[in-house]
Structure formats: structure tokens, C-alpha cells
Design a protein that fits this description.
The complex is a heterodimer of chains A (517) and B (489).
Chain A (H helix, E strand, L loop, with lengths): L22 H10 L2 H27 L16 H4 L10 E7 L5 H4 L16 H4 L23 E4 L4 E4 L3 H5 L5 E7 L5 H10 L9 H9 L9 E5 L28 E3 L17 H22 L2 H24 L6 H7 L9 H13 L4 E6 L8 H25 L6 E6 L3 E6 L10 E4 L3 E7 L6 E3 L1 E2 L6 E3 L2 E2 H11 L9 E3 L2 E3 L16
Helix pairs in contact in A: 9-10, 12-13
Chain B lengths: L5 H8 L4 H23 L9 H7 L2 H4 L1 H17 L3 H32 L4 H28 L6 H25 L10 H8 L13 H13 L18 H6 L16 H6 L19 H12 L33 H11 L2 E4 L8 E4 L9 H6 L7 E5 L9 H5 L7 E3 L21 E3 L7 H4 L10 E3 L15 H9 L5
Parallel strand pairs in B: 2-3, 3-4, 4-5, 5-6
Antiparallel strand pairs in B: 1-2
Helix pairs in contact in B: 2-7, 3-6, 5-6, 5-8, 6-7, 7-8, 10-13
The chains are: A alpha/beta (517), B mainly alpha (489).
Chain lengths: 517, 489
């Protein structure tokens, strides 16, 4: 039959018999394609479909009664979460993330015996059968590189601190230094994911998102979780830091971290364009919300809810963010403390100052990223730069929080994704050396609400290579952070893909009680 | 007035029958023996045969038997007034108590003699035990005349004396095993002042010294139980600096600047299970940081006045106030939500447990949250444990309202217009731990009214006129740090 040129309907009844397939297959098809078979299979399919609609919904949601209304996903599950599980010591946290892997041997993990072992090979027994990175696995020698900088004892605790960190040295009595943190990953991306999300693979929510989801906002006008990136220094080896580190994973995207830009406007297009006043803006948003609500009703995607919430948050941030980043009312004592760097947006000191202002305004979780700690070579050239950029900011932030009475209920965390090797990567000279990634031990510190000040926890061996006492796995580290914020990490779960997902992953983790106040 | 016919009294008190007379004689002999025991077998402070101690150490176990029996006697006597068979039992129980008491007394004596215990508390406990045994004997002898109806007051009076002696002796015994401050250590302060009538605080030369803050508490908690005024093992007392430096029968136990040669440090660092290990008798060993403190202090001269010892920090004294649970606010949830919607400020739960209370959070509406708004929340005051009023519009007028938020533990008033007028109202907040007055106009004079609040440990006055000393945050280390980093560029 010939088709009319204007008719778009397909009138041609093409069957299996017209397909270009072997004749044997066509015969087989003709033999089984009977009326009896059609009716029988239809019955089965209908039966399964009926059963799926009866039980499937309940099984998917883990709700045996199947009473969950699907049309309107809830925005605030907070009351059902019953969080915090117990009265927390810290209400908020500031995470100073030293991306790239700071060399613990040159900063806080003092190894005086290494000086006499300069350029000697590290004993094989120390490394064992560990697989190294491709960058040093081919090295014939693993020459020991003692730290280039002298250490001194500081504070009443007599904690050894490198001369690179003169400011950190002044607050050691307030710090909880953990020398025995260890991780599973030896490369940046998996290690930094593990540190942030408890899993090496992307797709899981990060610490900040878990906190935003579980503890909620203390300030409706600012995001619950804010990320500040420090401007990169071209002289440093900057590993990329991507937004999946502050992604909310399978949690609703309203719990994702909101990044403020490190230069120019902290949030783009925040100000209303000329000719658009607040009322016009409000009307526009109301109209958009109406459309979004319609979409939500039609499709039922909970992400639409997140979108509605984010539009509203952006509207409120138009007023709150300019106030947040307006440093003109800061007293002179602030600049004395943070130093001249803090006046320049995007520096680490500036971000520390913003972090303090956010803590004052009830931002639940602030994460400050500082890149460039990946010192594979030229340690003596790069490390002083890195320390100069960060040391004073860290000290200023802790001191400022402390004098303003905010450190009592704020947890401050300083950590990278792993440590660095005692042996030199590439050539070792008396003047310079490099250090490769090292997952077996690295040093972090915490201070503030929930942790015991003036404590050094965990010990590494003489080469700062293996943990010999009180190991703290990344999962344990995260469990401890959650504990300080009043959360039992084992009870804080979210069902996804059939698993009760949690920040500390399915592998058992435990709170490090020795770190707690 | 009739003169007391002593002889007649004795004649009537002591029945003439032969058996009872024998009993009186036996009791007399036992009494004499008990009274002479300390003179014959003197507690000389030296340990004796091990088997004495082995048997003697059953004393703390056995001691509870006579105590129970003795307490039972008056109970049975009183109950016997209503049910006569019980009174018959009382006589038997009394006899048992005498036997148990003398047996226990012997065990106790073996313990003291065997382990070489001396000291005032040991002596008191011993004499108490002896007095108790004699008193009980007397009770046993006098009781038949009492039940016969003669002298209705003698036996009850004797029994009362026995009970009092029991109480006193038992307390001395308890002080021996648990230490003399066992009862008073956690006694509420007012009760303590009343009970001890100001007879506290043995003079410590310098209350801020390292010795007073760190060394003395360690010794007091772990050693003074056996090496103190009440019990002085080995002639060594560790309850004051002078006694500590004087040492015991083997000479000084601490040699300034020679920690490793000091007997005290040697004895507390022996391997576990060593016969000479201190604290002895299975008491918990000193913690490594405690030993480190003593060692550092000795190595740096063991001075009574030095305030700091390099390398050792004194943990700040923390008196944790046990959190007082608040009532269950969940029944007001609807009202609370209404209030939140009308005022904009929120009441956030501290945790999922209602008894942890609520936090008044005003950050969203800080600029418009003033005194009248705060007053609105007063009806929830019993449930509010923390009030965040930072950067709000509240003024001094709110102190009166806040004084009625009696469950407050933390109060944020930073960057508000308060000047401290009426701050004294906060003295009513007995649980307040944290008060933030940073960037306010509060002056030091206004603070005097709240300085004496018992648990108010954290007062923040940053950038206020009351700030103790202007925080100078110059950077002296910075330049030196620069020179220390041997840059290779």
C-alpha cells in the first residue's frame, strides 16, 4: 500500500516477518507466537504489575505500611531525624582543608633522630610490602630527608613545633594534635573524597552536607554550609579541588555546600540589576515558584523542592551576603590579629576572617580550602610560602574565636587528605628535597568545642612512616567530629540504594574517646 | 533526796545465782584482757608474720556481721513490745553479737599488728572496738534483770551507748579504708562548711604553686590514706610539704634534682606485681602523667613555691556542673511554633532529648528583636537553657526578664546596647556557666555583682570597657620566624 505524502501516520503494518533476520528465526517466532501464549503471558505480566504496585512502593521506601505520600516530598525531615542524638559540645564547625597533603615531618611530627640518617636509605622493613605511587615506585633508593627546619618546644605542654609555624606554635596549648591519622588512598582524588565523604568514589554526601541535612540551619538568611576557596599561588603545585567535594551526593541538593567566590563579587549577580527593585524581584520569584510547584506536582521530583528552596535562599542572600563580607566595621584589633593579608579577598587570612564572621552568624559548617601542599619537589622553596600564607590565619581564627567566646561551641579542624613520605622523591641535596604522598600517617589538629586542648594524640615510628600508637583512621576521625556535634555516626543514616548509608561508610568506625574533652 | 545505795544497787543488779555470778566473772576477765591487749601486744608500726595479715584481712569482711547483729538488737527489743517472741530472740541475737564482736576485734587486731599500722585513726578504731565489745558484754549481763522488770532504764541506756560507739567506730574504720575525706569530698559546700565549721584547709604555703596545684592533690588522692596523720605506714607522711620532704623511717623519699634516685618515684614506678610497689594493696597505680609531673617537679628542685614546672601543664580546674534536666516542653510544641511564627526567633532543641532544653535563637530577626519580644518568650523560660541575643536590640531593661530565665546555662549578649545596669539580676541564674558581653558597654564596676556566681566560669568581655587588659596582638614572633626559616632562594 502506498502512503500518502502528507500523511505522517505509519500505516505500514510491519511485522517480525518483514525484518531482515534469518529465516530459521522467523519460523521459530511463528511457532511460538500463538494466541494461547499471548493470553498466558499477558496474565502473568498483569499479575506482576499488580504485585509491584502493591508491595514495591513500600519496599522501595523501607516503609512496610506503604503509607508514604509520594506526591509531596517533605522539605524538612528534621523532626523525624531526632538530631542531635545528645547535647553537643559544638554547634558549628570550621574545617581548614589543606589540600595536597601537608608534610607532617616538616610541621608537627618531630623526628629528631632523622638528622643523623640524612641520605641513608630507609630500611625496607619500615615500608614493608606497601605499593607506592607511580612517582616514586621506580626509585632505586629511598633516601631519608630529615626536615630542613629546626623544631622547638612551645607552651605549657612543651609541644614540638617546626620553625615554619611560629603562629601555630603560640596556640599549641589550645590544640588537639592527632599524629596518627591514616587513610586508605595514596592519590589525591580518592584520598580527598575519602576525607570529605567517607568514600573514595564520588557520589556520596560530604561532611558538611551530612551536617546541613542532620542539624539544619541556625540562620535562615545564609546557607547552612559554605565553602571558601583560597586563591591559588602560581608558585605552588596546586591540585584541583572540585565541587564534588562539597556535593550533597544522594541527599537533596539544598544540602550541598555553597561556594563563595574568592575574588570579585563573592556571589555572582547577587545585586539586582538596574531597574529591578526588590518588589519586581519578589514577584518574579513568586511566579517562578508557582511554575516550579506545578512541575513538582506533575513530576514529583524532590529536586524541584531543592530548586525552590535555593531560589528563596538566593533572595535572602542578596541582603545577608553583602553584610557578611562587609569588613569595614571590623575593629583595628582584627587587622592586628589577622595581618595585612586579611584585607585582600581570596587570601587564606581573609577566608579565616570570613569563617569567624560566619560562625558569629550561625553558619553551621564552613570549609576553607587551601591548595598547594603537594610538595613533590622543592620543599624548601614552597613550604615556607605555604606556611606563611596559612600559619597566621589559623592562629588568628582560633584566637579570635577564643577571645570572642565562640570557641566554646565551635569545632575547628585543620587537616589535609594524607601525609608525605620521609624519603625524598627525586634528588636529595642538603639544600632541597621532595616528598611523595604518604597515606599511612599524617598529622591533623582540632580545637574548640568537644575536644581536649593541649593534647597530642597518637604516635608514629622513628621515620614518621607507620603509626605505632593509637591509630586514627579517617573514618574514626569523621566519627569523632560528628560526636563533637552531638551525632552518633552509627545512628545517622540515610537509606539509599538499599543501604543505610552513613558518613563513616559501612566499614565499622569508632569515636576516638581519647580526643574528647 | 535519797542517797544512792551503791551496794544495794549492785546486790540487786547482780543476781545471786551461781551461774550468773560465773558469767559476771568471765565478763570481767574478758574486759580486763581486752583493755590490756594493746599494752601486752603493742602496735609497734612494724609488719609481722604474713599469716597474721592473711587472717587479719578478713576483718573488713567479718566486721559487717556484728554490725548487723548489734543493729538488730534494739529493733527486736522494740518490736518485742508488740510481739513477745521477738523479744526472746533479742537475747539470743545479743549473745551472738558479743561473740561476733570479739571475734572481729581479734581479726582486726591481727590486721593492724600484722601489717604494722599505727596512727590516730587506727588507735581510735581499736579503742572503739574494745569499748564496743565491753559495752555489749555489759548489755548481755544486764538484760536479764531488765526483762525481769527491774531497772527499766539501765539496759536501754547501755544499748544506746553501744549504738553510738558502733557508729563512731565504724566511721573510724571507714576512714581507714577509704580515706578520711571520703564522706566530705563531694559534700555540698554549704553542708561542708556547717559540718566542718570552718576547720578546713590545712595551710598550704602557696595556693598557686605547682606543689599545691598538682603534686599535693596527687599525693592526697593516692597516698595520704596510708601515709597521713591518721595512718602513718612506714613512719612516712605525705600530707604536707614539710612531711613529704622529711621522709619516713628509711630517710627522705624525694631528693631534689635527683628524681631517679628518689625512693618515692622508684616505688611508684616498680613493675606491676612487685612486693614494694606503691600504692600498695592493689590500690590503683599513679597515672603516667601524674608520675611525670612529680618527676619533673623533683628534677626542677621540688620547690614548694615554684608556680610552673617546664614541660608540665596544670589542667585548668574544671568543676563540671551536673546538667539539670529541664521539663518536657513537647506538650507546648504548638504554642512554641506559633510563637516562632509570630516573633521570627526560634526555639531550637539542644538535642532529641527534651530534658536537654531549648536554645533561643534570634539570629534571623536580631535587628528587630528587643525587650518586648524577649518578654514574650518568658513563658518558656523553664525550658530555655541557652539564649543567643547577640546583635539584638535588647537593652538593660531585659536583665530583669533574663533573671527569670532560671535554667539558662549560656547567655549571649555580645554586640548589644546593654551597659550592665541591672546585671546583678543575673545572679539569680544559678546554672549560668557562660556569659558573653563582648563589644558591649559593660564596665568592670558592673561586673562585680556577678563575679561571685558559683558556676559562671566563662565571661567574655572582648572589646568592652570591662576587658581586663587591652589585647595586644602584635606579632613579635613573625620576624624571628622569618630569620629562622633558612630559605634557599
Amino acid at each position: 500500500m502506498k502512503q500518502h505524502p502528507l500523511c505522517t501516520d505509519c500505516e505500514q503494518n510491519s511485522t517480525v516477518m518483514d525484518l531482515p533476520i534469518p529465516a530459521g528465526l522467523k519460523r521459530e517466532w511463528a511457532a511460538i507466537e500463538t494466541r494461547r501464549r499471548f493470553l498466558g503471558r499477558s496474565g502473568k505480566v498483569l499479575g506482576w504489575a499488580a504485585m509491584a504496585s502493591l508491595f514495591g512502593e513500600a519496599a522501595l521506601h523501607g516503609d512496610v505500611h506503604g503509607t508514604t505520600p509520594t506526591s509531596a516530598p517533605k522539605l524538612a525531615p528534621r523532626d523525624q531525624l531526632k538530631l542531635p542524638h545528645f547535647a553537643p559540645k559544638a554547634k558549628r564547625a570550621i574545617y581548614l582543608f589543606m589540600s595536597g597533603g601537608p608534610p607532617q615531618i616538616d610541621l608537627l611530627d618531630y623526628k629528631p633522630n632523622l638528622a643523623s640518617l640524612f641520605n641513608k636509605d630507609m630500611p625496607d622493613s619500615v615500608r614493608g610490602n606497601q605499593q607506592l605511587t607511580g612517582m616514586t615506585a621506580g626509585q632505586a633508593h629511598f633516601p631519608i630527608a630529615p626536615s630542613h627546619w629546626p623544631f622547638k618546644q612551645y607552651g605549657q605542654t612543651g609541644t614540638w613545633v617546626s620553625d615554619l609555624l611560629p603562629y601555630t606554635a603560640r596556640m599549641v596549648d589550645d590544640l588537639t594534635i592527632v599524629k596518627s591519622v591514616n587513610t586508605d588512598a595514596i592519590n589525591h582524588e580518592p584520598a580527598i573524597m575519602l576525607m570529605n565523604t567517607g568514600n573514595m568514589n564520588a557520589g556520596k554526601p560530604c561532611l558538611g552536607s551530612w551536617l546541613a541535612y542532620g542539624l539544619g540551619s541556625m540562620n535562615d538568611n545564609l546557607p547552612t554550609f559554605i565553602v571558601l576557596q583560597t586563591k591559588t599561588n602560581a608558585k605552588e603545585n596546586n591540585q584541583p579541588v572540585s565541587s564534588r567535594l562539597w556535593s550533597s551526593g544522594f541527599l537533596s541538593s539544598e544540602y550541598a555546600g555553597v561556594g563563595l567566590r574568592s575574588g570579585g563579587d563573592p556571589v555572582l549577580y547577587l545585586a539586582d540589576p538596574s531597574g529591578v527593585d526588590r518588589e519586581v524581584r519578589r514577584n518574579m520569584l513568586d511566579a517562578v515558584e508557582q511554575i516550579n510547584r506545578q512541575t513538582l506536582e506533575d513530576i514529583g521530583d524532590p529536586e524541584t523542592n531543592a530548586r525552590i528552596a535555593q531560589y528563596e535562599m538566593a533572595y535572602r542572600m542578596q541582603a545577608s551576603v553583602p553584610e557578611l563580607v562587609d569588613l569595614s566595621k571590623e575593629p583595628q584589633s582584627t587587622w592586628d590579629l589577622y595581618g595585612p593579608d586579611a584585607k585582600q579577598p581570596g587570601t587564606f587570612a581573609y577566608n579565616c576572617l570570613l569563617a569567624r564572621r560566619m560562625a558569629e552568624r550561625g553558619v553551621r559548617f564552613t570549609q576553607v580550602y587551601k591548595r598547594g601542599w603537594d610538595v613533590h619537589d622543592n620543599v624548601t622553596g614552597m613550604l615556607p610560602l605555604l606556611c606563611q600564607e596559612t600559619d597566621r590565619g589559623c592562629y588568628a581564627l582560633v584566637t579570635d574565636l577564643k577571645r570572642r567566646g565562640l570557641l566554646d561551641d565551635t569545632l575547628v579542624i585543620w587537616a589535609g587528605e594524607f601525609g608525605r613520605t620521609v624519603y625524598s622523591q627525586g634528588g636529595l641535596t642538603p639544600e632541597n628535597y621532595g616528598r611523595d604522598h604518604h597515606p599511612r600517617c599524617f598529622t591533623t589538629w582540632m580545637t574548640g568545642g568537644g575536644v581536649r586542648p593541649g593534647l597530642t594524640f597518637g604516635e608514629t615510628d622513628d621515620y614518621s612512616y607507620n603509626v605505632v600508637k593509637d591509630p586514627v583512621h579517617v573514618r574514626d576521625f569523621n566519627a569523632t567530629i560528628l560526636h563533637c556535634l552531638g551525632i552518633d555516626h552509627n545512628r545517622f543514616t540515610y537509606k539509599f540504594q538499599g543501604l543505610e548509608q552513613k558518613l563513616t561508610s559501612p566499614v565499622p568506625a569508632s569515636v576516638v574517646n581519647g580526643l574528647l574533652a | 533526796m535519797a542517797t544512792v545505795d551503791l551496794r544495794g544497787l549492785a546486790v540487786r543488779l547482780i543476781p545471786k545465782s551461781r551461774a550468773t555470778r560465773k558469767a559476771w566473772i568471765a565478763a570481767f576477765v574478758i574486759t580486763i584482757a581486752l583493755l590490756l591487749l594493746p599494752a601486752i601486744v603493742r602496735l609497734d608500726g612494724k609488719p609481722h608474720a604474713d599469716w597474721l595479715q592473711f587472717v587479719g584481712r578478713f576483718h573488713p569482711l567479718a566486721v559487717h556481721l556484728p554490725i548487723g547483729l548489734i543493729v538488730l538488737v534494739p529493733v527486736l527489743e522494740i518490736a518485742g513490745a508488740f510481739r513477745p517472741p521477738l523479744r526472746e530472740a533479742a537475747g539470743f541475737v545479743l549473745a551472738l553479737a558479743v561473740v561476733a564482736c570479739i571475734g572481729t576485734l581479734i581479726l582486726g587486731y591481727l590486721l593492724a599488728y600484722g601489717s604494722g599500722d599505727t596512727g590516730t585513726t587506727v588507735a581510735r578504731h581499736m579503742w572503739g572496738g574494745i569499748a564496743l565489745a565491753i559495752g555489749l558484754l555489759l548489755c548481755l549481763l544486764v538484760r536479764p534483770t531488765w526483762s525481769a522488770g527491774d531497772f527499766p532504764r539501765v539496759y536501754p541506756a547501755l544499748l544506746a551507748c553501744v549504738l553510738f560507739t558502733l557508729l563512731w567506730t565504724a566511721h573510724q574504720g571507714g576512714s581507714l579504708t577509704h580515706g578520711s575525706n571520703y564522706l566530705t569530698q563531694y559534700m555540698p559546700a554549704p553542708l561542708k562548711r556547717w559540718a566542718l565549721l570552718g576547720a578546713v584547709n590545712a595551710a598550704v604555703p602557696n595556693a598557686d604553686s605547682f606543689y599545691a596545684k598538682r603534686i599535693h592533690p596527687i599525693l592526697d588522692a593516692n597516698c595520704v590514706g596510708c601515709h597521713g596523720a591518721s595512718k602513718t605506714e612506714g613512719g612516712l607522711r605525705l600530707d604536707s610539704y614539710e612531711m613529704l620532704m622529711k621522709g619516713g623511717k628509711d630517710g627522705p623519699v624525694l631528693l631534689p634534682r635527683r628524681a631517679d634516685n628518689s625512693l618515692l618515684i622508684q616505688r611508684v614506678t616498680l613493675p606491676a606485681g612487685n612486693q614494694h610497689f606503691m600504692p600498695a594493696e592493689g590500690r590503683p597505680p599513679l597515672k603516667p602523667d601524674q608520675i611525670a609531673s612529680i618527676r619533673a617537679w623533683v628534677d626542677q628542685g621540688a620547690s614548694p613555691d615554684a608556680n610552673t614546672v617546664a614541660g608540665v601543664s596544670i589542667p585548668a580546674e574544671v568543676k563540671e556542673l551536673p546538667l539539670q534536666p529541664v521539663g518536657d516542653y513537647t506538650k507546648f510544641m504548638d504554642e512554641i511554633r506559633q510563637m516562632e511564627n509570630s516573633q521570627g526567633a526560634k526555639l531550637l532543641p539542644v538535642s532529641s532529648k527534651p530534658s536537654d532544653g531549648l536554645i533561643l535563637n534570634t539570629v534571623d530577626v536580631a535587628a528587630s528583636f528587643g525587650d518586648p519580644q524577649l518578654a514574650q518568650f518568658e513563658k518558656f523560660a523553664p525550658y530555655i537553657v541557652e539564649a543567643d541575643l547577640a546583635r539584638t536590640a535588647i537593652t538593660d531593661a531585659s536583665f530583669e526578664t533574663l533573671g527569670r530565665f532560671t535554667h539558662l546555662r549560656a547567655l549571649h549578649l555580645e554586640s548589644t546596647a546593654v551597659t550592665g545596669n541591672g546585671l546583678a539580676r543575673l545572679a539569680a541564674l544559678s546554672q549560668l556557666i557562660y556569659l558573653n558581653l563582648s563589644e558591649t558597654k559593660v564596665t568592670a564596676a558592673n561586673l562585680s555583682s556577678i563575679r561571685s556566681m558559683p558556676h559562671l566560669r566563662h565571661i567574655y568581655l572582648f572589646n568592652s570597657p570591662a576587658q581586663p587588659a587591652p589585647a595586644s596582638v602584635a606579632a613579635p614572633d613573625h620576624d624571628s620566624a622569618q630569620s629562622n626559616t633558612r630559605s634557599t632562594q
